[in-house]
């Protein structure tokens, strides 16, 4: 079954680390929220209405209008196991909300997983486009084109005064969320991170962890996104985030240069200690693994661990998560079993990619 490749492979193409400024920005994402006029939002819809919405939106894909994306796959979430849905969440291909409310949920995926269209999530339609590195404008161009294709086929809920209508009031207006996933270890190590994040929130942006709202910023990974969609144009939202993210990238690069010039021995000691622990640990929890992998990622980018493959590090972001571990080893696991398997997987991956 086609869905199997999406839950068996940890690395999506947008995580290949080949995009601009990928030493700091893991990925750029644009998400567009839309609803169908005169249909209740998913949280209020009865099964027959949500089924009708799903069939209508899947029909756009079946019509061939999305063929320019390559051989797309349509996945009804009712066909997936709970573990398979968890893996798709860990790969950022669906949201936790869609995984939990998947009675009439569906997913349209591009072959390289950079385009993910969620159906009957919080809104009827969530178009998500992901790009490697710092490529906000490229992700927006892709998302906008897909949005146009759907808008030609379905009548969106739209108000002349307020813009696109959405289930959550914070998405009303343009309905777009733009975000970058950033690795900021040097700002954390030099004690600048709180000042930087405070300044970011004061200009209307939100800072969250690896899995968005409600998640902890472990492994020095921070997701920075817009909070407001009403009263600003798409271009204003994108440019505001772009300019702030550009400044954060420069601050992080400057902090890394300062670390290597003023504290090289201490930084290298920290990096190599983490490499040594991960290369030999027999058991490790997800929080410690995230922090140690962050150290190794920093060391690789500073030239302190040139033998470490960045793609392998990106893959480990997903493959060490609870769902993917259980999928890899083919069995349900207790937390202790996962900690043991996580250590085994990391040891093996570092040994073959260093």
Automatic annotation (TrEMBL):
For binding ATP, which residues are annotated in this chain's numbering?
A: 27-31, 92, 126, 177-181, 208-213
Q: Which GO terms describe its cellular component?
A: extracellular space
A GO BP entry is: phosphocreatine biosynthetic process
> Which of UniProt's keywords are assigned here?
Allosteric enzyme, ATP-binding, Kinase, Nucleotide-binding, Transferase
Q: Which reactions appear under catalytic activity for this entry?
A: L-arginyl-[protein] + ATP = N(omega)-phospho-L-arginyl-[protein] + ADP + H(+)
Q: What class of enzyme is it?
A: transferase
- InterPro entries reported for this sequence: Arg_Kinase (IPR023660), ATP-guanido_PTrfase (IPR000749), ATP-guanido_PTrfase_AS (IPR022415), ATP-guanido_PTrfase_cat (IPR022414), Gln_synth/guanido_kin_cat_dom (IPR014746)
Position of sequence motif RDXXRA motif of the pArg binding pocket involved in allosteric regulation? 338-343
The entry summarizes how activity is regulated as: Appears to be allosterically activated by the binding of pArg-containing polypeptides to the pArg-binding pocket localized in the C-terminal domain of McsB.
Q: Which part of the chain is the Phosphagen kinase C-terminal domain?
A: 24-255
What superkingdom does the record give? Answer: Bacteria
Question: Recorded E.C. number(s)?
Answer: 2.7.14.1
Entry's Gene Ontology molecular function annotations: ATP binding; creatine kinase activity; protein arginine kinase activity
**Biological function:** Catalyzes the specific phosphorylation of arginine residues in proteins.
Return the similarity comment. Belongs to the ATP:guanido phosphotransferase family.
Name this protein carries in UniProt? Protein-arginine kinase
């Amino acid at each position: 079954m086609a869905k199997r490749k999406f839950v068996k492979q940890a690395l999506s193409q947008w995580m290949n680390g080949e995009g601009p400024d990928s030493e700091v920005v893991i990925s750029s994402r644009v998400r567009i929220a839309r609803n169908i006029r005169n249909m209740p939002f998913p949280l209020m819809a009865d099964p027959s209405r949500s089924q009708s919405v799903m069939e209508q939106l899947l029909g756009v894909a079946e019509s061939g209008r999305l063929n320019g994306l390559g051989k797309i796959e349509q996945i009804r979430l009712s066909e997936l196991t709970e573990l398979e849905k968890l893996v798709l969440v860990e790969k950022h291909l669906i949201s936790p909300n869609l995984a939990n409310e998947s009675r009439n949920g569906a997913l349209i995926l591009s072959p390289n997983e950079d385009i993910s269209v969620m159906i009957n999530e919080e809104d009827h339609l969530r178009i998500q486009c992901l790009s490697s590195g710092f490529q906000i404008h490229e992700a927006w161009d892709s998302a906008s084109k897909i949005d146009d294709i759907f808008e030609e086929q379905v009548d969106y809920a739209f108000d002349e005064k307020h813009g696109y209508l959405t289930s959550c009031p914070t998405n009303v207006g343009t309905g777009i969320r733009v975000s970058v996933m950033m690795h900021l270890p040097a700002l954390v190590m030099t004690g600048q991170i709180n000042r930087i994040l405070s300044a970011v929130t004061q200009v209307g942006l939100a800072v969250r962890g690896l899995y968005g709202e409600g998640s902890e910023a472990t492994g020095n990974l921070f997701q920075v996104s817009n909070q407001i969609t009403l009263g600003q144009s798409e271009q204003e939202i994108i440019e505001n985030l772009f300019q702030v993210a550009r400044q954060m990238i420069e601050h992080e690069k400057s902090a890394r240069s300062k670390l290597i010039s003023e504290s090289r021995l201490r930084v290298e000691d920290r990096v190599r200690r983490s490499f040594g622990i991960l290369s030999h640990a027999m058991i490790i929890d997800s929080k410690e693994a995230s922090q140690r992998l962050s150290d190794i990622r920093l060391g690789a980018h500073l030239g302190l661990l040139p033998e470490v493959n960045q793609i392998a590090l990106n893959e480990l972001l997903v493959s060490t998560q609870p769902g993917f571990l259980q999928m890899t080893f083919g069995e349900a696991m207790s937390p202790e079993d996962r900690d043991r398997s996580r250590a085994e997987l990391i040891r093996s991956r570092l040994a073959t990619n260093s």
